């Protein structure tokens, strides 16, 4: 194969690095919506408070954000319930940086503003906002459409989104609006009834019947009321706010309705909490004391009524409707962008659906976006916020392209990125059913017999669908817990199931189901009718249930006949977006209780069946346009991919280099040169180790515990990477997967045999796993080496430790490798087996192969090995033939027939000293005199020499080299 020039690799790597730099620079330096300098002005405005005949001044705390170029269109941003103007500071700065004049304010009863919370009353909060529009018309920085008529758009989330709708319906000077995760009708948002005995709203994807006599959403309403008790006060500082560095400090201005109005002082305490939400300062002027906190008396009375009885009066329903967008949507004709969350158990998709239908019916143009967030899933992300700003930029300033009146919804998939579910966006030409064709609905078969369910006394224990206030935390845990907290109690739940899907079903909106409900005899039926809760689960092949959006549909069935006759009711199931994958199925569950709602306390029993054997599932076809792609993650992905490419190139280049054997070492079993292994924390296990092993040698690797022996062997086997240096086997550098590793047999990490197989079967299976021909295994020879006899046919779990050790050594010898590496091979062997092992290793090396043995048994190494390498603290301290190392001190021992004569003879040899007699042995320090010369002199003197050798043992040398403490 044609070799690739090294220069190609270099230039490819250079090109990758250059491309990464260019892409990163382009992404980082692309035009940013936050690139302009923004100035702010803090002002407390005095507005006229209350309806005609009850007017009084009220202080409203504001911040005006000014872009670099003015005059410009204005955008008013209203905050959510429990917040203040600081809650929307980041959004305001983003709009201002895009060229808008932005006004943020703390609504009455919140932050440092005066007045009481009236829930967006037309006479209070809406009247305040109208006066703020008039104030903007007097600002020279704001572009005008005419005298007293500023070019202005309004946006806000939740409570602030409802105010945007209310203001647009009450003041035609508003030119465009973009409410987010808000409601249409508080009497339905907080007291929903999703069942109907008549016709259901048709056409749109998430339409609900908005029936009367709804079920009180107790948990969310309680959170609302608690967050209004403190009014989002600005806790943490005293006195009026000081301007931030770089801002323009402004004095209080008069309201539009009263040029001569005196400035209103800010309350004496205040300072926003970190999130701009619930605070802890004293109520502003006008707030009532006692249990109502900052709420107006009418609002407080309505909440107390519903919280204690669970059922609203007609007056309460009328109040909630009067402070809801439903009271003005018939008057909204301005371009409207409705952004609603798919993870929202407070204000579901049905609320946005109602706003869209009503505004379109009034003649307004509507664009709808559903995103993967909400009160249970988080605020819109950067890409969606930019889309909202671009939408208002076109509507107010004709900047950019016409965003149209389409429909977008987000689909969360099963794949995860950085711990969170992947998201794609589906785009349709229009929101179905507004002006064109109605939404498509797919009939899904459901089965299940009629079932009896009970409502226990006190409605306790109750089922769980969501955890208001905690659901956002669960959804934020990478999405792993979202939809998994639902609990349906046995005896309280009727379950109906659909077939297993053959292909993905993408639900986009509210499915409908028709139920047949009857009262069971023996218990008096509830005077207020049966209360049921319907939910639609996605059930996986393993039985795992996901409740999309953690959403549930409360249904109040009309009073049931006492004669057992049933009532048929159609239920609008929760509005969801859910891709139900193939192999999954849908499950419809109807329960009698839910912890988040106020349910009847008296005991009851109902019989529930399916009136139809299908449910109708909304499907909205569209085009996938991808999901959010924040710059940071994109850059991170590009960098990671680039690094990956460089690593692949580096590995390829290294493999190409290491794949060529060193021609001078092709016949040398092992050469280690400068080998080093460092671990984090400064530990150096092997430090600049170098030695060589030649053919036919049995080399012993010695060293105390911690010397680095096993680490060296693991690097030799390619199990770990060295920090530096090289290991070459037959001239080829060792790396994971190197072909030359097939020429090494090893016993280093432990054999790991399968206990239910025999010893012979374990060896055959191991060899088969290498992929090499069976005839090259030499299993018979290996089994003979193991010396297990008939035990080779027994299961390994019956083996002793010594038997396992012998089988492991036999496994290392399979294929008769050219280099055999053994770590402590004699562990668990008895003396006869050790003696046999010694003979086997020497005989194996005598065939021209090489053996490397690491052991702590110095006597065995001395008798088995012909060469040794001694390591201490990761470094080489000695290497060479055993005889040379042992005799390195020059001391010799001669066993003779006449010790005294031999001693005299040795003393007469020039240079020999330290002669001593020890029985039949004579010890002498030869000091360079060859041992053979000394033997010749003794024999010439008539002394018979029976044995001659070094006086020291290998153990003595070892202790001298590494120290006895080691």
TrEMBL record:
Residues in ABC transporter domain copies: 670-898
SUPFAM superfamilies membership: alpha/beta-Hydrolases, Galactose-binding domain-like, P-loop containing nucleoside triphosphate hydrolases
Segments traversing the membrane: 7-28, 631-653
InterPro entries: AAA+_ATPase, AB_hydrolase_fold, ABC_transporter-like_ATP-bd, ABC_transporter-like_CS, Galactose-bd-like_sf, P-loop_NTPase, Xaa-Pro-like_dom, Xaa-Pro_dipept_C
Keyword Transport annotated: yes
Keyword field: ATP-binding, Hydrolase, Membrane, Nucleotide-binding, Transmembrane, Transmembrane helix, Transport
Superkingdom as given in the UniProt entry: Bacteria
Biased composition (Low complexity): 249-271
Region entry Disordered, spans: 232-287
Record-level Gene Ontology MF annotations: ATP binding; ATP hydrolysis activity; dipeptidyl-peptidase activity
Pfam families: ABC_tran (PF00005), Peptidase_S15 (PF02129), PepX_C (PF08530)
Similarity annotation: Belongs to the ABC transporter superfamily.
Name recorded for this polypeptide: ABC-2 type transport system ATP-binding protein
Protein species of origin: Labedaea rhizosphaerae
